[in-house]
Amino acid sequence: MSVHSEIKKITTETLRKMKFDKEKITMLTAYDFTTAKMVDAGGVDSILIGDSAANVMAGHETTLPITLDQMIYHTQCVVRGVERALVVADLPFGTYQSNPEKALDSAVRMMKEGGAHAIKIEGGKEIEESIRKIVNAGIPVCGHLGLTPQSIYQFGTYKVRAKEDAEAEKLISDCKLLEELGCFAVVLEKIPAALAKKASESISIPTIGIGAGPDCDGQVLVYHDLVGMNKGFSPKFLRRYLDLYTEITGAVSQYVQDVKSSDFPNDKESY
User: For a 10 Å CB count at each end of the chain, is N or C smaller?
Assistant: First the structure.
């Protein structure tokens, strides 16, 4: 039996079963082939090609500028590096909010051209028809509630969402709506832990938290934050597992020094 045939691929159904079995779900971002290969080999359940690529890969202040073509390119790169994880891709700002037909076209392109296994979109009741149309076409959809970065100019801040009763109630009803519409999971970003617990218990589809406490059915982090490549970004919810910024700048400095001093390449490193 080949190695490939032994790898059990994670599907949307796997995630549902994990919630049922009370097994926590792990998700990380990746935006390129090499990173995807490493993240997949590390055993993560799902890889998210987040529109956070706009910040992390392109240096934009918000996620808004990234285009569908750019997201498709990042998704193609990631898919080539993945053997096991479920690959979920964000539909970027402006590709699904205006009308359901456009939303479906965007989702179809992401699946056909990008090779994604599922798509993720932000919002609840306000994008109900778009979600319905995409799900009805047989495309798996992951929702995203709480702090929705594509609406940053509406919120005006990246602070914790749904602290007030009205917004908290809307979040719970949006969670239930996403489940009714056929979403397979929902990301909950930067909301009080108690609300995330309540939301997770109110629906049978998995919740995946980022800054939403320990009671979600899974957790997601941005890979570059997890490995410490971003020096200036340290929100409360982030746990850094490495300090790659220091390691990499140190390695580059050493390389520069070795070349300048004619230490590199040495006789062993020459033909």
Answer: C
Residues in the chain with pLDDT < 50? Answer: 1-4
Structure tokens that stand for 69 in this block = 């073509």
d(CA 149, CA 156): 10
Cα–Cα dist 182/174, whole Å: 12
| Contact (CB, 8 A) for 28 and 220 | yes
Residue pair 229/208 in contact (Cβ under 8 Å)? The answer is: no
- Predicted TM-score (pTM) of this structure: 0.95
DSSP for 99-156, written as a single string: -HHHHHHHHHHIIIII--SEEE---SGGGHHHHHHHHHTT--EEEEEES-GGGHHHH-
Q: Please report which helix (H) or strand (E) contains residue 55, including its range.
A: helix 53-56
The H or E element spanning position 38 is helix 33-41
**pLDDT computed for residue 5 by the predictor:** 52
φ, ψ at 138 (rounded to 5°): 90, 15
Catalytic residues: 189
